[in-house]
Fold:
Amino acid sequence: MSDHNSGDATRRDFLYIATGAAGVAAVGGIVWPLVSQMGPNEREKAAGAPIEVNIGDIEEGRVITVTWRGNKYFIRHLTADEVEAAGAKEQSDFRDFVAAADRITGPEGGDAVWSVYGANCTHLGCIPTEVKENGDTWNCPCHGSRFDVTGRVTKGPAPVNLPQPPMVFASEETLIIGTDKAGA
Structure:
């Protein structure tokens, strides 16, 4: 009789363990999707992640537009004349004065010939179009705000300059937008 009870106890223990394991698996199968859906999806991760931009092929005087976090940004390779002209402007020429040197950048040890700024007017968000007259480079077609080659507002209803994103030069030919630390 003791053999019979011993076998029952072994089977019972097995059933308890198997039922417990199945219960844990079922709870995990329900909880895992609920927890994982609370985090950002791949698209959301990509939208906030820094972007690398190859700037090596952008000729002097040219501009490209990139998108980071759903916002467009202009990256302009300034000519020597544009850098000089931007630096020569007076404070009274601007609605929101910032020195040109603070808005023109470049890789460490390289020439400061790059200007990177938001591509949406700070008045109502329109996208300025490129013009070249009277030292201005951008004209907002909606309400007439004007911006220079560094994105500083010179006239119109725009209250402040075009914003600059956090950025760092990883090399002479690579700009990373979305971080202010190399390798981050």
Helices lie at 2-37, 42-48, 80-88. The chain has a mean pLDDT of 80. The chain has three helices and ten strands. The longest helix spans residues 2-37.
